[in-house]
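Hi R.,

Here's the chain you asked about this morning:
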Amino acid sequence: MTDEPPTDAQAPAAAEESAARESRPLTAPRDGTPPPVDGPRALADLVARFGTGAGPVALDAERASGYRYSQRAYLVQLRRQGAGTALIDPVGVPDLAALDAAIADAEWVLHAASQDLPCLADLGLRPRRLFDTELAARIAGLERVGLASLTENLLGYSLEKHHSAADWSTRPLPESWLTYAALDVELLLDLRDALAADLRAQGKDEWAAEEFAALVRWGGQQPRTRADPWRRTSGVHRLRGPRAQARVRALWTARDQLARRRDTAPGRVLPDAALVAAAEADPRDERALLAITGFNGRATRRLAKVWLDALAEARALPDGELPTPPPADGPPPPHRWAERDPAAAARLARCRQSVTATATALRLPPENLISPDSIRRLAWTPPEEVTRDAVAAHLRGYSAREWQVKLVAADLAVALAAAD
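And the predicted structure, written out as tokens:
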């Protein structure tokens, strides 16, 4: 093996040869680090180049999670045979519909596609076909499915991930960050070929194809907004009573409005732990508020009135406007089943055992064989007549793919029908 990374066409052979060799650090793209495209003329040149390239297109996106309120992309990386690597600054060119049209017929290769599809869709980029290297690795039965682990184990090259949590909204972006970003797509096409070969060898390529098609149908939709997003505050389970719940709701709402207005991650305005502590203590004045851990910073002290007003608002609510338990969406938490419905708990245990056995035999994570939520719903409310076809219909109703239904429906019917 040479010191240069393998070309896209050499990927399968490189994957086989590197398996038994010590990995080498990959520190620079083979064609150098390109400057970010941040204007219409440069974007037009990029569109022409990628439109005439050959084969799949590797894509990645960098966000500023933990720093910004939004989940928008602050850098988009692409690579295609015949076109090389490109970096796009969406701040300067926020509409990439022309690029989308130019590569519409190509297969798009992403790693952990569900993380990037929403922010790519916001820019006008939606795949018609895709290959997800992380999902492919899971279906192939690989234990370590991070991008760096896969390139090291399958291609023999190690990638540094020390900029993965960087604030990508920074401008200008440091050269070292741009190199890091370019390297994220440098070997993605090689990795795609190595994983595709592994899936074919195991007879799992059609399974993966169904999963990828489901991702395309999903198309980067933004997750549904929860009716009560404040209930996801870390530590909220410690609060007892609807009045305390009202306080955390009021504080959460005040923080969210501030974060949205500033385009800042909510946790940087006020950590969840401080928010919950204030909801527990219910301070009535600034001195009491500032005595709570998390409220003694200079920026937080300046906002003392915001938090005290929110708490006062919650304190003044009539009982009829206090939070009530959310309507049930599916079965209760499994740890309560034994008390509430022992027969359902027994069904769930048998179904889980069946799924685990099948997944182990197929070298699949159980959650990729069939979603745990599907199993819980099925065990809690089984079909009136437990047959393979009835179970299959229920699983399809829970968005299970045909390959999953084929592998688990019959055994789950047996598990559901077994005597308690």
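Residues 231-321 form a domain with the DNA polymerase; domain 1 fold (CATH 1.10.150.80).

Let me know if you need anything else.
M.
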